[in-house]
Design brief:
- It is built from 10 helices and 36 strands.
- With about 600 residues, it is of the alpha+beta class.
- Among the domains are: about 80 residues; about 250 residues, Rossmann fold, CATH 3.40.50.1820.
- The strands form 7 sheets. Strands 5, 6, 7, 8, 9, 10, 11 and 12 form an 8-stranded antiparallel β-sheet that branches.
- β2 and β3 form a beta hairpin.
- It is globular and about 65 Å long.
- The protein starts with 6 loop residues before the first helix and ends in a 7-residue tail after the last helix.
Length: about 600
C-alpha cells in the first residue's frame, strides 16, 4: 500500500478477511473470504501446515464458502453477473477444477445449504417458486418440498454460521417459511430430510421465528431458536424429542440470540445487541448462568465455538477495522497486507422524533468544533441497523469534513418487534420523520450546519434519499442515491422471488394492490419537486433494486435537465471489486465537493 494514498482510500484498500469456518470433522481445515486479491474471493487455509490459497477467481466476486464435513472439498456459491442467481460449486481443498456441487438442483437464488453425514440440503428460488432439495449418499438431489411462498434452509437467512438446517445426525431438517403468507415473520417447520414428511411446526402470528443452530451432539434433538414472543428477539431451546420449549432466562433489554453450542452441548454462545453494540456470553443450560466473554466494545460480525471450546469472533467499531480474535484476544488470522488507518469514534445518540418516540443512532465528526456540514447517511433494509462498526464510506465523509448522522429510524432492527414492524403498510413515511428529527437535533447540539446538509444511502437508504429530495427539497444541498428504489411499482416486477414476497408482506400486497400507499410513497411521483443535484450509483444486474426502475427515475430528471450524475457498474446490488468501490467513492466525494461549500476531496 502506498503512502501517498489518502486515509479514506487506504481504508477501502486495506485487505479484509472474514472469520474462518472449519470443516466439522477436520477442524484444522478452514475457509474464509478475503479481499487480498482486490476482489472478494473464497480462500482455503490448512491450519496445520499454515498454507493458504485462493480458491475462487471470479470477476464478480465470491463470498459464500463452506467445507464438506471431512474437509476434502471447498463449496462456494457463484453467480455469473452479480444478479445473485447462481449455483453451488465445489473443488478439492488442495486445488483443481471446480464442478457443480449438487446434481439435480436448478439454478436460481440461494435459499441456504446444510450438511449432515450422508446428506446435503439446499434451498433454491426461481421463477417457478421455492424448493428444498436433498442429496442422500452422494446421489443426485431430489426435491422434497416446493412452495409458491418463501421457504429456506433454517439458520441461513438469519446470517449465522452454525448448523441451523440439518441436525447433527441428519435425522431432522429445519426450514423457515412464509407459507402462512408473511415473509417478514417466518414460521418454523422441521421435516424428515429423506422423505419431506413433517415432524413438527411452530407458527407465531405476526412474530418471527428463526432456527439458529442444532445441538452438535448426534442424537440430541435440541434446536436453538430465536423468537419474538416478548417483543425483543429472544433465545429458546426447542427439544424436538419431547416437544418442550424452554426460554433462556435473561434480563437483557434488546435482542439476544444463540449463535453456537459448546461441543458437549452443555452451554451456548449468545450475543446481546445493546443499541448497536454487541456483547458475547456463555450460557450454561443446566445452571442457567451467564458468563461474559471479555472483548472490546463494538459490533460482532460473526462468532462460533471451536471443538476445543475456544471462542472465535470477528469484531469492529467505528475506530477499528474488523479483526478475528480468540477467547484470549489473540488474532485468529491476519490479512496479508497493511492494516487500515484508524477511524473516528461513533457516538451513541438519542433524540425525540416529535411523535413521542425516542430514536437511537450514532454520529461521527471530524476533529475540532462544529457546526460541520452534515451527511445524513441512511441505512438499508429497511430492517437493518446502524451499529458501532467499521464503515469506510462513513469515515470518508468524515475525512472530507462532514459530520455524519446515522439514524435507526422506525423500521430498524434492534429495538423490538413493534419498532421494526412500524413500516408495515406505511413505508416511506416514518423514516423521513425520524431522519429529519435527527438532523434537527444535530443542529441544536451545534454539530450540524443546516445550510450544508446532504442525504445519502444505499438500497433502502437510496429509496429514503430520493423520498427526502422529493418531499423535503428545502432541507438538502445534494443527494447520494446508491442502488435506489426510484419507481417502486416498476421495480417489483423485476425483483427476485424472495424480495417480491418480502415486499408483499411489507406493503400489504403487490404495489398495484395498494395504490393509495404507492401514490404517496413512490419516489418517482415526486421527482419533479427535486431541487438538489443527485448522484446515482446503479448496478446493471441488480435484482434487489433493479436497473430498469432506477433508470426510469434518472430519465425523469433528465427530461427536465435537472443536474445529476450517474455511475453504472456491471454487477448487481453492489460491487465486490475494490478498485470499483474506490472509483465510486472518489466520484461521490468529487460530486459533493462541487455542491457543498467548504469541503474538498481529501
Amino acid at each position: 500500500m502506498t503512502d501517498h494514498m489518502p486515509a479514506w482510500e487506504r481504508r477501502f484498500r486495506a485487505p479484509n478477511v472474514s472469520l474462518p469456518r472449519w470443516a466439522r470433522n477436520a477442524p484444522e481445515r478452514l475457509v474464509f473470504w478475503s479481499t487480498e486479491s482486490g476482489v472478494y474471493q473464497v480462500h482455503a487455509w490448512d491450519r496445520e501446515t499454515g498454507e493458504r490459497r485462493q480458491v475462487t477467481d471470479h470477476p464478480v466476486g465470491v463470498l459464500s464458502g463452506e467445507l464438506t464435513l471431512d474437509g476434502q472439498r471447498v463449496i462456494f456459491w457463484q453467480d455469473e453477473t452479480g444478479s445473485e442467481a447462481g449455483q453451488w460449486y465445489a473443488e478439492s481443498f488442495s486445488g483443481g477444477e471446480a464442478e457443480q456441487f449438487l446434481a439435480g438442483v436448478s439454478q436460481g437464488w440461494n435459499q441456504g445449504l446444510a450438511q449432515a453425514p450422508g446428506l446435503v440440503a439446499a434451498g433454491i428460488s426461481n421463477a417457478d417458486g421455492f424448493a428444498i432439495y436433498v442429496s442422500a449418499d452422494g446421489e443426485p438431489a431430489k426435491e422434497i418440498w416446493r412452495s409458491t411462498e418463501s421457504i429456506s434452509v433454517g439458520g441461513w437467512e438469519h446470517g449465522r454460521d452454525d448448523q441451523g438446517g440439518l441436525s447433527a445426525d441428519g435425522s431432522m431438517l429445519a426450514l423457515e417459511h412464509a407459507e402462512h403468507g408473511d415473509s417478514m415473520h417466518p414460521a418454523l417447520r422441521v421435516v424428515d430430510p429423506r422423505t419431506g414428511s413433517v415432524i413438527a411446526e411452530q407458527v407465531d402470528d405476526a412474530m418471527a421465528l428463526h432456527a439458529s443452530c442444532w445441538s452438535p451432539v448426534p442424537g440430541d434433538q435440541r434446536l436453538a431458536v430465536t423468537h419474538e414472543r416478548e417483543g425483543d428477539e429472544g433465545p429458546a431451546i426447542w427439544n424436538l424429542a419431547t416437544g418442550e420449549w424452554t426460554d433462556l432466562e435473561l434480563s437483557f433489554e434488546g435482542p439476544v440470540e444463540i449463535v453456537a453450542w459448546w461441543p458437549d452441548a452443555s452451554a451456548v454462545l449468545v450475543v446481546h445487541n445493546d443499541e448497536g453494540r454487541d456483547r458475547l456470553y456463555r450460557y450454561e443450560l443446566d445452571a442457567a448462568t451467564l458468563t461474559p466473554i471479555e472483548h472490546e466494545a463494538g459490533s460482532i460480525g460473526a462468532a462460533s465455538v471451536r471443538p476445543d471450546g475456544d471462542v472465535w469472533y470477528r469484531i469492529s467499531s467505528g475506530e477499528r477495522a474488523p479483526v478475528s480474535l480468540d477467547s484470549a484476544g489473540a488474532d485468529v488470522i491476519r490479512a496479508q497486507g497493511d492494516r487500515a488507518p484508524a477511524g473516528r469514534p461513533f457516538h451513541s445518540w438519542h433524540f425525540d422524533n416529535g411523535e413521542g418516540d425516542r430514536v437511537h443512532g450514532f454520529y461521527a465528526t471530524p476533529e475540532g468544533d462544529g457546526p460541520f456540514p452534515v451527511m445524513m447517511f441512511v441505512h438499508g433494509g429497511p430492517t437493518g441497523q446502524d451499529t458501532d462498526s467499521w464503515e469506510p464510506e462513513v469515515l470518508a465523509y468524515v475525512d472530507m469534513g462532514f459530520a455524519v448522522g446515522m439514524v435507526n429510524y422506525r423500521g430498524s432492527t434492534g429495538y423490538g418487534r413493534e419498532w421494526r414492524d412500524r413500516l408495515i403498510g406505511d413505508v416511506g413515511g416514518p423514516e423521513l420523520i425520524d431522519v429529519n428529527a435527527g438532523l434537527a437535533d444535530l443542529v441544536t447540539r451545534g454539530i450540524a450546519d443546516p445550510s450544508r446538509s446532504v442525504v445519502g444511502g444505499w438500497s433502502w437508504g437510496g429509496y429514503i434519499t430520493l423520498m427526502e429530495l422529493g418531499k423535503h427539497p428545502d432541507l438538502w444541498l445534494a443527494g447520494v442515491a446508491g442502488v435506489p428504489v426510484g419507481d417502486y411499482a416498476m421495480g417489483y416486477e423485476d425483483l427476485s422471488p424472495e424480495l417480491q414476497a418480502y415486499d408483499r408482506a411489507l406493503l400489504g400486497g403487490r404495489p398495484d394492490e395498494v395504490p393509495e400507499l404507492m401514490l404517496d410513497r413512490n419516489p418517482i411521483n415526486f421527482a419533479d419537486q427535486v431541487r438538489a443535484p443527485v448522484i446515482f450509483l446503479i448496478g446493471e444486474n441488480d435484482t434487489r433494486c433493479p436497473f430498469r426502475q432506477a433508470m426510469a427515475y434518472v430519465d425523469t430528471l433528465k427530461e427536465r435537465d435537472h443536474p445529476h450524475e450517474v455511475v453504472l457498474f456491471g454487477t448487481g446490488h453492489g460491487s465486490y471489486d475494490i478498485d470499483e468501490e474506490v472509483d465510486q467513492m472518489r466520484t461521490i466525494l468529487t460530486f459533493l465537493a462541487k455542491h457543498v461549500p467548504g469541503v474538498t476531496v481529501p
